[in-house]
Amino acid sequence: MDLYLTYMLFNLLVMNRLDTTYAALADPTRRAILARLALGEATVGEIAEPFPISGPAISRHLRVLEDAALIARTRRGQQLVCRLNPEGLKSAQEWLDHYRAFWTGSFDRLDEHLKRNPQTPEKK
């Protein structure tokens, strides 16, 4: 029973983190912000510059990315500087890798099965 509860709690925590990460990645503006930060750290003003949205809207996007642990923000004097947090994508990547391996194996087995048991096309 304890193992089951531990498993369920772990699963809930991991799934909650995945939900937060994928929800953050679902928005094209946030993905564009991440692409910009992949080039190097930037101030909030530099991040906001190419977007036709308000400063408060950019701040909300940054807060979502920070809550998902995809970015980190630090204060330098009067400026907020953002940088990419590659560890934030780690759990999402591990989850994807698990299912990639599952589906690759499934398709390989299907391919082997079809090669061993060729189907003749139906004639009309």
Can you walk through the features of this model?
The longest helix has 27 residues. The protein is elongated and about 70 Å long. The chain has a three-stranded antiparallel beta sheet with strand order 1-3-2. It is mainly alpha-helical. Strand 2 and strand 3 form a beta hairpin.
In short:
With 124 residues, the chain is mainly α.
Query: Could you say which overall geometry the principal axes of the C-alpha atoms support?
Result: elongated
Strand arrangement, major sheet: 1-3-2
Helix content: 55-70%
Instruction: Count the DSSP helices.
Output: 5
Compute the average pLDDT.
Answer: 86
Low-confidence stretches: none
| H/E topology pattern | HHEHHEEH
Topology:
Blueprint: H1 2-25, H2 28-37, E1 42-43, H3 44-48, H4 55-67, E2 71-76, E3 79-84, H5 90-116
Antiparallel strand pairs: 1-3, 2-3
Helix pairs in contact: 1-4
